[in-house]
Here is the input.
Amino acid sequence: MLLTSCSYIPLELPLAAGLPAKRLFVLDGAEVDADGLLPRDFCPYARALMREYDPGDVLAIAGSCDAMRRAYDAIRYWGLAADVFYLDVPRTADEAAVDYFAGELRQMARHIGVVGPAGQVEEQSLRLACEAMNKARAAMAEAAKSLEEGTLRASRLLQAIMDVNELMGDVARWGMTWNREEGFGREVCDALTRAVRAEIEKALSVSVQPPALAGRVRVGVSGTCLLDLSVVECIEEAGLEPVFIDSCMCQRVYDFSVDVNPSYDIYMELARSYLSKPGCPRMFAGDERIARLGALAAMYGAKGLVYFAPKFCDLGYYDFPDVKRGLRESFGLPSLLLEGEYGAGRTGQVLTRAVAFREMLEGRGEPNGA
Amino acid sequence: MYVAGVDVGSTAVKAVVLLDGRIAGTNVISTGTDQEKTAFQSLSAAAQDAGVVDIEDISAMVATGYGRSMVKMADRTVTEITCHARGGRAFAEAAHVIVDIGGQDSKVIRLDEDGMVADFVMNDKCAAGTGRFLEVMAERLEVPLSDFGKMWRATRKPAMISSTCTVFAESEVVSLLSHGVAREPIIRGLCDAVADRLAGMVHRVGLATEVVMTGGVSRNDGVRLSLERKLGLKVSVPSMSQFAGAYGAAIIALELAEKGR
Amino acid sequence: MGPRGTRSVGNSLQVRAFRRFARKPWCYGAAKQVVDIMERRGWKPYQISAIRCVMDDFRQAYTGERPCIYTTAFVPTELVYGLGAVPFLPEVAAGYAAAFGFAYDALGAAESMWYSADLCSFHRAGVGAGKLGVLPRPSAVIATAHLCDGGKKSLHRMSKDAGCPFYLLDVPYDRSERGQKRLRDQVEHIAFDLPEKVPGISPEGMAEAIRVSNATLDDYLEVCALRQHSPSPWRGGEALNYVVMFLGAWGNPWLAEFYKDLASHIRGIIASGEYPCCSERHRLLWLNLRPYYKTGLLDYLELELETSVAFEEYNWPYWSELDPDDPFASVARKMLANFGWGPIERRLAAVDSMIDDYSIDGVVQFAQWGCRQSNGGASMLADHLKRRGIPFLNLGGDGVDVRNGSEAQAMTRLGAFVELIDAKKAR
Here is the structure.
């Protein structure tokens, strides 16, 4: 299986090589002991990656930030995984960056082609893998609409995305036998799409009855990485209702698609789509992020933004002041900074801040909910 | 009509009972291990102080503070941010910034024109620059906290204490003492270090001319004096500043009771 | 600014004085006279050269004589000088702020802007100093994506505040031909795009800046060779102060003067035998920077413990001669040559070279609070050095924010480290 560290690493490539793949969401990161491998004042997610991997696993680490760069070093240096690939992800989405990233993706495809059962990645397989991922993303995006309608809790949506992610790596649940040596064919594409849709429907079926939002204050959630589900659960417990989650564990996973038109170079299209997807604070795209957050808040009626930065996440720490100022000045929206490590949402201090933020928003005399 | 507010803090539980909107009784006791029991004791004592015959006569009660969820008899729990904002504003009508330093955390709250919370910031989870920090330093210096203001005034030159980390600052204090530095400049330096941190938080939410200090540490004149110098304005401390959280809770309880009528 | 009568953040006398006088040309005339007096009173030529070099750049930046470009320590300044501009490094300014006692103001200003105290103080104080209005006005900002997230993010914010063009050199991770080309193209883009946006900028001086840099490198390599001498002829504590020259003045002819004077000074020390630390017990390699506020830490190490800092990581010349005929590729090649970029093994190899070249007995990493790129490699560095039998100390502290360290604790750790090397040598 191929495990990835970042939402900028396309799962399409390993799938095309006949390798099941998933993002490494280390939800139990607090239990990983990284002392002696990475410093304590370091990104909790990077520290959570410090564990022994199965010999058959290929690890793909993106050069997302300083912390991930060192996590890549540490995993290699300490021999935690047998095969680690570093994907150099540009920080802009201009044509030169897209062209360079496409080259990096080709290199990754060659690397995976050596270990994947299908051998070198075939273009047809890759297009079908892109199609399957497009459909998976669309299904998640469709589910996210239920947040606005009040028929789905944000924490449940997050859980559904985690479940879909697990499904990507568990071929036995795709409802077919995948002859992986043949690459990613039409039959596999359809089977995976069906399995993803079923997983999403399962999540929606256990959702709350409307109107879930009545009497609750709508907010947006943003940040770098949420680490686990606890922060969103805490926000809900505080009486706030997240109506969008701008995170690499949520919206940044599904809110884009890859153009599979056969007349275009598929690597260029993959590169363009991933670099242009809703941006993480690591990217340099002017004030696009703030404009996007403001537009999302207006679209979904969010009265404020809760921003979560994992402790020692420099990118989050630099992003928040910009976001706070931008949302206040351009959209009149207040924001709250929450920070912490794994399980942050279960600490009283974080809950107190979230509740106080809800009280503050209620005190502003603006209508709650829809 | 009686209403009550209880503020379950990390070092003390404070209770305020209002009779027809005016403070009729107060109480403060140390937070024990059983917060629910301590809260009840404090409330009972405040009720007694207010002349309440039966605790059932209290029409509404709001609990606040980090132990607020332990107060099962409360009609509602409200965070200390909102309660200090309401209490601080009630104590000082012109207040636009409330600086609350409790035993284990500190917070700065910006109020809008209507006295509602416009923004707030809380300190990190360690004891840096909180009441506990000052307690540890007072113990090390063998000076009661209540004497900090007097000793602050006794010198014009503070010793340089760079850290508000309890461990680092303690080692700085020990080092200064071993170099023969008197306790007065050390105390002033400690107050400056705490005030430095608070001033940074005040500037985050936006400085206003009317700054009010609440919470246990507001009784420590040294920190107030240092903060005044850092901000370049007078920082007022209401006579019952320690009760600001509980008073704010009681005001919210009054609103609840009136709504319920 | 706060309400009338209140004290805004960073209102100290130093800040007010700096804000008031730094942009006045006469101020530099007066400063020049002071430097002349210092020279007559026996300050060493290299010290005078360094002051003149920095002052010259400051004058041009603050008075607007030449366009000022903000950049970081990892962007080759040959690019900035070559474009006819003067470089300004906010992170270096943070070091000055610490040395002159107003880092608190800058850090406080950053804090008031919601920047976390867990960020590296060099960048935090840089942003804060920008807010205080004590920095020159930038005409443009050139940041680099390699090595340090704080540098690029803080500079991005500063460009937004100043409303000036921002360029990010998105440095590829590896040194492949494709990677080199990508970076070269970006450098070239800046060189031709910036003149369209900022008057007074032109790429015409690029080749000359590269030639100046090459000539300076020759002088600098001589300094490095002289520093291999034992006992150490120049104090590492001082070398860490002058690291500002190494990080921010390549392409400036003054730098060659400085290194020539420094080489001459070191030769004189070796000839006279008047070493700063005559009875040198051990020789250390110092990684990362040092505290720039008033501290007795380096004096304690070098004078009391008689342990020299023989060389410093941030003074290591990691590139070879550049090509003036292809200045854009040269800038790209220099950036990619940085040993802090790429896999950790590059940094380990660089440390190995320094250990060998400078006869090092032990390595100290000043673990700057918030410096993830450097501190993130500490465990691997420790393990690597252990295998080589070289004692290693990861010394926590902060170069700018005095609140993030304890001098007493640091001294105790340094003392114990020196004892450990004593014991190792005695075995």
User: Anything to note?
Assistant: Confidence is low (pLDDT under 50) at residues 366-370 of chain A. Chain A touches chain C through 48 residues (CB under 8 Å). The two ends of chain A are 43 Å apart (CA to CA).
